[in-house]
Amino acid sequence: MHSLMPTIDDASDVPVYMQLYVYIKDRIGAGQLKPGEKLPSVRLLASLLGRSRTPVALAYDQLVAEGYAVSRPRSGLFVADITAHLPEVGQPAGTGQTPPLSSRPQLADNRALPPRAYHAADAAEADYDFGYGAVDLSQFPHGRWRKLVGDCFLPENGRTLLYGDYQGDAGLREEIAAYLLHARGVRCSPAQIVVGAGTYHSLDLLLQLLRPRLGEIAAEEAVNDGVKSLLLQAGVPVKPIRLAPDGIRIEELRATSAQAVYVTPSHQFPYGMTTSIAKRMQLLAWAKAQDAYIIENDYDGEFRYGGKPIPSLQGLDSAGRVIYLGTFSKALFPSLRLSYLVLPLELLADFRAMDHSYDQLASPIFQSALRQFMRAGDFERYIRRMRIVYGRKQDAMLTAVREELGERAEVIGQGSGLHLLLRDRDGRSEEQLVAAAKSARVLVYPTSIYALAPELAAPGTVLLGYGGIPIERVGPGICRLAEAWGR
Ligand SMILES: Cc1ncc(COP(=O)(O)O)c(C=O)c1O
Question: What are the tens digits of pLDDT across the range 19-54?
Fold first, then answer.
């Protein structure tokens, strides 16, 4: 008999697969299931529980996605070592196996800034635009938003037309805190939230706040280009940290003297990997030992298909080292220009003491509308609906890529978010791929612009967003792309 004896509460609103996943995850976290221990087969556990195999398989998929378990072909599923290779406090830097930092790329802060390249372009230029910044508005409750925004202009709501609280609408912050706890596992009080006017504004504020503590800053080797601009303008050296399939290479991070690191652990941008639980624990241990901060950008964590969203890194942090950054640009729509920082208490005190050069930049009108949209439960309903919409779009894209491009293109980063990458197996350059597509009136986008140093760019890889393109155009668009790239 296996030591796993989960009890399932059929009266609970929590789905069976989620109860199972939480049960096993908690036992791994508590050390009751040891690294290397084999989990019962799906069939065995299902029969022990008297259930179908589906919830067990779903629970196992989630555990693997988050790195709590590893699957070994033809052997089964094993508990991962989630505390593996935790650094000794005071471990000398540079003891990992990667080359010494001096031989790796470092950046000055005066590089030319790339143009913002991913925004869906002018439709007139193309028949199929796989631009990244756009979202699907087919399900958007236009009428409801018209009413919520319109109500701000009623005479009795005159306050909404004045300057707002510097940290953001107090009621909206309450809604965000409740949502983040429930949906993303983020633990914070509304007082720790600072509402901003988009990710870059929030990050800019944050970098101003951190600046006095920074001698250098580390970041994933490839980051969104707006983030890249801000990091390069921060006035301190930026250390790119290379990525492995389970997140950043911790040994490279340990070899830096950075006081902060920028990461996208739920869904790396642009490569799409998820940081495993083992790496998350190592990152947290690094931050604690170095008194450093982790900047967690969770820009599209809501959208994961075929499993539940990956919980935030912030929720695992008990030492106040994670600064969580989120946006409504993907979950709702980008012109809303609403984002938020969740500050650890230590930084909150600094934030309040800081000299602020401008007032609240996020419009109180949209903050008020969003507060009501969230309070009524409409936001979570909308997210649930959009998860299905985007999941179907991604399926349509994957099917078309498989059928039209087959072995010629490797898909990178599927399973979540609103984009994926295609790497050409015929060895063509990114420029050739973008140009060939464009000549057939299909827009696909470069990925090299995201690399923090040119030598870190992935060769022959382009980005395709599917947020904005209607689902019925995905297949024909990929078909045209395959023709343009030569079948
Ligand atoms: C990594 C990442 N963060 C954030 C955003 C969104 O930024 P904003 O909140 O400014 O719209 C994007 C872009 O679309 C992104 O790729």
Answer: 898 899 888 888 888 889 999 989 888 888 888 888
Q: What's the 298 CA to ligand 1 centre distance in angstroms?
A: 9
Residues of the chain with pLDDT under 50: 1, 85-116
Would you call 309 helix, strand, or coil by DSSP? coil
Bridge partners, 262 (sequence order): 219, 295
Ligand 1: centre distance to CA 198 (Å): 8
Task: Check if the beta carbon of residue 126 is closer than 8 Å to that of residue 481.
Answer: no
Question: Ligand 1 center to residue 362 CA distance, Å?
Answer: 16
Helix (H) or strand (E) holding 361: none
**Distance from the alpha carbon of residue 445 to the mean position of ligand 1, in angstroms:** 16
Ligand 1 neighbours by CB, cut-off 6 Å: 133, 198-200, 224, 264, 269, 297, 299, 327, 329, 334, 339
Residue to substitute in 268, 299, 336, 421 for testing ligand 1 pocket (most ligand atoms within 8 angstroms of CB) = 299
Query: According to CATH, where is 3.40.640.10 located in the chain?
Result: 102-112+141-376
Please give the C-alpha separations between residue 150 and each of 48, 144, 160, 196, 381, in angstroms, as whole numbers: 56, 10, 11, 22, 22
- Residue 299 alpha carbon to ligand 1 centre in Å: 6
Which atom belonging to ligand 1 lies closest to the Cα atom of 327?
9
Q: CATH 3.90.1150.10 residue ranges in the chain?
A: 123-135+380-484
Q: What is the pLDDT of residue 122?
A: 55
Give, in words, the CATH class of 16-79.
mainly alpha
Return the pLDDT at 2: 59
**Atom 7 of ligand 1: nearest residue by CA position:** 199
Quickly name the fold that domain 102-112+141-376 has: Aspartate Aminotransferase; domain 2 (3.40.640)
Q: How far apart are CA 102 and CA 99, in angstroms?
A: 8
The predicted pLDDT at position 103 comes to 37
Q: Which amino acid is at 76?
A: G
Residue nearest to atom 15 of ligand 1 (CA): 224
Assigned fold of 123-135+380-484: Aspartate Aminotransferase, domain 1 (3.90.1150)
pLDDT tens per residue across span 352-398: 998 887 778 999 999 999 999 999 999 999 999 999 999 999 999 99
pLDDT of residue 139: 96
Nearest residue to 477 via CA among 446, 439, 437, 445: 437
